[in-house]
Amino acid sequence: MALHESALEELGLAPMWVRRGGAHEAAAELAASDSDADVVANEAQPVEVASAVGVEAPVSHETQPPAGVSNAAREPLESREPVRAEATPADAPQARRAPPPAADEAPPFPDDDFAWFDDLPAAPPSDAEAKSNEPAQPGIDTLDWTALEARVSACERCRLCERRTNTVFGVGDREADWMLIGEAPGENEDKQGEPFVGQAGKLLDNMLRSLDLARGTNVYIANVIKCRPPGNRNPEPDEVARCEPYLQRQVALVKPKLIVALGRFAAQSLLKTEASISSLRGRVHEYEGVPVVVTYHPAYLLRSLGDKSKSWQDLCLARDTWRKAGAEGDAAK
Ligand code: URA
């Protein structure tokens, strides 16, 4: 540790995180315990000073779905925003200092499910910035399927690339009329590289069957986010922004007649709104010029069987909208 950093640490002013370059070059001045990891897990901006107020309150595990259950299963909650609280001596978990590493030891890097790209801006780079920082690559909006899939699998546009096993690009009929869009890969999807492979995926297949559709037959399935957020946390807005060009390109290539947004997160991300899912259901919206119908996420339906009938209503609206779009398309020919 440089002399001035240890002096800062003495004063309690040392940064809680310092990360530049690749994972192995990462250095953390303060190691967080598991509970401390919760404290920072959803933080959108780095906390520069150990004693800073405004740290995340620990998320109560009583309100969380069991481990491995996607965030989407928490659909009925009106807000999944991280809970912020002023840190007070009584209720704020204290960041614990790790013993300084021996000179020949690798610096401690807390397993906090979260890594900061402190050298990247929160917003996606503009074209001009991108050109100056990256080797020239064709724009995402020009890629064909093969190039797009390759670009996604090599993507390092946000921190989610660090912990993924596989990117989850999308699956199904690339000329489908129906495009279903979920939130982000969960653990199983991350392992297998395919969207909706768990229990929620089975329910989704049944929902499709009820419409005489099947995964891969006139249906293409993708997610807003292509990499698994660690611990199934909510994707951050900058992660959505950095991933969106891939989804936009998928929509442009599939040219679906209809998009079904699965769950609140997908709906809000596509429609750029914070409106509740109940207010978004029952109407036809638009994304990239394509009609969008919003319904509950299958993971939520697994836990709230009573809402399956509402979801069926949504699917009927989707089918009517698809038929109408097909009829209009035929009339235009
Ligand atoms: N939930 C999603 O939203 N997408 C998946 O691929 C899996 C679970």
UniProtKB/TrEMBL annotation:
Pfam families: UDG. CDD domains: UDG-F4_TTUDGA_SPO1dp_like. Residues 169-316 form the Uracil-DNA glycosylase-like domain. It catalyses: Hydrolyzes single-stranded DNA or mismatched double-stranded DNA and polynucleotides, releasing free uracil. Residues 75-84 have a biased composition (Basic and acidic residues). Belongs to the uracil-DNA glycosylase (UDG) superfamily. Type 4 (UDGa) family. This is Type-4 uracil-DNA glycosylase. It comes from Paraburkholderia sabiae. The lineage of its organism: Bacteria, Pseudomonadati, Pseudomonadota, Betaproteobacteria, Burkholderiales.
